[in-house]
Task: inverse folding
């Protein structure tokens, strides 16, 4: 008896080959649809902040750059070097790696290079988010819509700052956990959570929330395995959960980093100084977007349950946790939006009608992705340094810096935006500027004094300027301060234009002997 297998052609007739061909075309078209959707969302995430957000340097942008310059020249910092108000205090620079990365990028590509790195990180994050939605069964249109909804609340946070590097780390964290949840038993990929969190611990303080989410998911997996009696899988998950909770301390500062977080979290004075540390205010756009997305998710989850479909409880729990975090501090809406839209895509696909995209739609989608990406990159790459600093009171700070160079004992009090720009443009003024954007560095009493100076809305405002000879304000962010500085009794205006003002304050005493007093 012959053991030779029959030729494939004898097993599959013409109609069979036709069926295989159509199946291959279907798979190819599905892959093409997913690729077009992912590219479109990535390009949207790149373009959305390109002009009005990433394209302008803000106080945190300058702070990231001059801190990175210090690290490049002197190493990891441990003691305050920039401001008078924090003089003598320990400086725990939790986000040193992000600062160094931005500064080294600036040395190579200038402001445009830093901006392009930032939008690349953001675009990758939302492209990966869309890929996760598609992997979990969302249609192309649903994945695009949900990803676009996730982008909207995050736009105000999309500027050159350390947090930008946390965007892709958060997306990867979600990818590791959600792809693992597709399997009955925990997968080895969960080990990747530890190096991911260790990297994150040196980039941005949101690692605390990330470590909590990762540990909670690992504990959930361990509990499920324990209930099934699969102890060989439960014990490693427990060990990884403890490891995840320890990862925020995987920095050059070790356990000292705990002091940084205790100074920062729950600090009411910092919340008074920075709106993003407060709840979304009613009826702001941030509040409306937060409440609308939360309501949309609740409606979708309800419709999903009506159809007796199972929920992803880790995703539900993460959505609830990040929603609660956003209710306390609006800066967390970035993470809430990513997780909430994943849950929205997960549940909406069970009750929304789906339709295979037409070829023309996919062609337009791909062309739009290319166009959006080219436009975003083009806008940032061709933007001049002066355009990047279009919101900065450059004339005021340059005149103030020139005056300070000839008066080495004079001290400088500037608002948040001018102070950070001043320290970036003139490194020699480190130690002579009162405050900068690192709000956790200052005692509540001194920080309140700076808030009073910038608000310029009290009768005792003039007292906040005592002890400082050079006063600088930004017209873009603090127009009332600029008007009051222009009419400060006994002062002399050194420079003023549409962006800001520099004033010589003659009321307080001057002299190096008194430079240590606030």
Result:
């Amino acid at each position: 008896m012959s053991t030779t297998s029959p030729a494939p052609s004898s097993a599959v007739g013409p109609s069979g080959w036709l069926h295989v061909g159509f199946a291959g075309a279907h798979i190819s078209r599905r892959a093409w649809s997913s690729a077009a959707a992912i590219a479109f969302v990535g390009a949207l995430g790149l373009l959305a902040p390109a002009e009005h957000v990433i394209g302008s340097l803000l106080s945190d942008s300058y702070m990231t750059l001059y801190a990175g310059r210090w690290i490049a020249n002197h190493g990891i910092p441990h003691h305050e070097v920039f401001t008078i108000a924090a003089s003598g205090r320990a400086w725990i620079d939790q986000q040193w790696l992000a600062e160094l990365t931005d500064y080294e990028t600036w040395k190579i590509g200038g402001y445009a290079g830093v901006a392009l790195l930032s939008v690349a990180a953001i675009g990758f994050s939302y492209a990966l988010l869309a890929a996760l939605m598609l992997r979990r069964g969302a249609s192309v249109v649903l994945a695009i819509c949900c990803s676009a909804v996730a982008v909207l609340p995050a736009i105000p946070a999309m500027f050159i700052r350390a947090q930008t590097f946390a965007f892709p780390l958060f997306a990867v964290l979600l990818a590791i956990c959600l792809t693992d949840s597709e399997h009955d038993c925990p997968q080895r990929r969960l080990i990747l959570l530890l190096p991911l969190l260790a990297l994150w611990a040196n980039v941005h303080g949101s690692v605390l929330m990330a470590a909590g989410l990762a540990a909670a998911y690992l504990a959930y997996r361990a509990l499920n395995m324990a209930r099934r009696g699969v102890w060989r899988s439960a014990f490693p998950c427990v060990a990884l959960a403890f490891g995840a909770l320890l990862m925020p301390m995987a920095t050059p500062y070790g356990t000292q980093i705990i002091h940084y977080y205790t100074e920062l979290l729950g600090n009411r004075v910092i919340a008074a100084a920075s709106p993003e540390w407060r709840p979304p205010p009613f009826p702001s756009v941030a509040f409306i977007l937060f409440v609308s997305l939360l309501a949309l998710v609740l409606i979708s989850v309800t419709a999903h349950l009506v159809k007796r479909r199972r929920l992803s409880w880790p995703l539900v729990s993460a959505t609830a946790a990040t929603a609660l975090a956003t209710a306390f501090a609006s800066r967390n809406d970035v993470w809430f939006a990513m997780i909430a839209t994943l849950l929205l895509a997960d549940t909406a696909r069970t009750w929304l009608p789906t339709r295979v995209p037409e070829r023309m739609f996919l062609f337009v989608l791909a062309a739009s992705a290319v166009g959006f990406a080219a436009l975003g990159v083009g806008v940032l790459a061709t933007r001049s340094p002066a355009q990047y600093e279009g919101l900065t009171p450059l004339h005021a700070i340059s005149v103030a810096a020139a005056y300070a160079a000839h008066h080495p004992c004079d001290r400088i009090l500037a608002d948040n935006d001018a102070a950070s720009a001043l320290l970036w443009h003139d490194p020699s003024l480190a130690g002579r500027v009162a405050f900068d954007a690192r709000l956790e560095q200052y005692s509540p009493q001194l920080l309140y004094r700076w808030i009073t100076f910038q608000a310029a809305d009290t009768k005792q405002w003039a007292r906040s300027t005592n002890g400082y000879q050079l006063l600088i304000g930004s017209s873009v962010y603090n127009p009332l301060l600029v008007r009051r500085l222009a009419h400060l009794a006994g002062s002399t205006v050194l420079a003023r234009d549409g962006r800001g003002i520099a004033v010589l304050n003659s009321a307080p005493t001057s002299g190096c002997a008194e430079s240590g007093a606030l």
In short: Residues 1-27, 513-517 have pLDDT under 50 and may be disordered. The two ends are 102 Å apart (CA to CA). Residues 96-135 form the longest helix (40 residues).
